[in-house]
Write a structure and sequence with these properties.
With 508 residues, the chain is an all-alpha fold. The chain contains 20 helices and no strands. Helix 9 packs parallel to helix 15. The two termini are 30 Å apart.
Length: 508
Amino acid sequence: MPEKPVISESSRRIARNTVLLYFRMGVMMVIGLFTYRIILRALGVTDYGVYSAVGGVVTLFMLVMNTVAGAISRYITVGLGKGDMGRLKTIFGTSLVVMGAFCLVIALLTETIGLWYLNHKMVIPPERMGAAAVVLHTSLLVLVINLMSIPFTADINAHEHMGAYAWISILEAVLKLAVAAAVWFSSADKLVVYAWMLVAVALLSRGAYAAYSLRKFPEARGPWKAEKALIKEMGAFAGWNFMGSGAYMLNTQGINQLMNLFFGVGMNAARGVADKVEQVVRQFATNIALALNPALTKAYVSDNKEYAFELVCKGSKYYFWILWVLWVPFFTDADTLLRLWLGEVPPEAAFFTKLTLLCFVVDFTPATLNVLVQACGRIRRYYIWTSLVAVLAFPITYAAYKLGAPAWMGYVAFFGVYLIKAYVMIRVANKEAGLPIKKYWKEGLWPALCPGLMTLLVISGIPQLFPPQWWRILISIALGVATMAVTVWRYGMTEGEKAFVLSKLKRR
């Protein structure tokens, strides 16, 4: 009984933060759509393909941000739960040391192996090799800036100050729109201008996160001190996390490099378009994750495991519902949507977009299991098994390409392997964190899959009934959303969730 008010307040905070983050997402999405349209037209297919392929060499390490940010946020959240300011300062100082070590290793790898790979293996038009080298170096600078800002952004997330996070993110999006306009009107090498201006955006936006954290949170102001034992512990925790995200990097940016080797920069441009759509869709899902993850971690470490398991199940089904609704219009009209947005696009872009979003649904739906296992701290077995399964997608794709398979086979390999990985995640989360498998299936996966499959059946006949026009997009969206809403209400929501929705509607 005494825990109910805590749970209720936590749920209200999650809902409040989610609203803030969706406001952020809506503004960023509108700005991002215009930004990408301008950049693709300004650079052209060849230069954008070069940026996608070469920047991808460094982007192989971009998921280090999510990996280490998750580890640092976990430690800061636990420290906040214990209320020990001295320990919090130690955690923050140690995280800065860990990030500096990561930056040093990545810089050495990029400026040696990455530079060799660019000059000797990548398929780049000879006249663009100089610009490609600039992209490699500037992408590394952006990555280092982002990595060193992680302790500050993790601190903001752990404190659940999502309003600040939302406004600074919007500032970053506005700056990127200004960059796109500057590139459009620039008379210099547009690819080089674009690369260097992204460095300036990273400095300004990440500096804003640091300034806010330094102003608001005492642990961020120092004096900082690092603890040798904590460096080892945090490094090991981040290392196991990196093992998991490393497999994902190999299966996304690694396969992007395979496409470059086997099919050239034109295919990289098509994949780049699909990846950009995925980034927009990812914002919808990560908004819930940013609001939900700190509450999930705090619930588990405070021994309120039942509430933590409830959030795991709710998170998975909410992720799936959002991603599925966003995937529906691309399933029926990807080519029309991309042409309305970008004008002319590479021929394979529409099909790649469908497959990319479908793969993202499979990968992101069980993401709350990662947070649960990180909260319990027993991550070694979890990441060993999930990584061993996930890493199979890359060699399968390489073998398929060697045998003459088309470029889209990389997505098929990813989809199949990550279905198996999801099953392994559930089994290991059960053993390490105590998640009841039946509960996760009954309250997480089944309420997600049932409405999704019904919606897919309803909208699958639209391409056969109507010609590919802009109004067909409206029909598929309206029918898809209506079907999803009805089936989610009937089969996906609990009685408590229905009562919450009805109470909000009555108030309005």
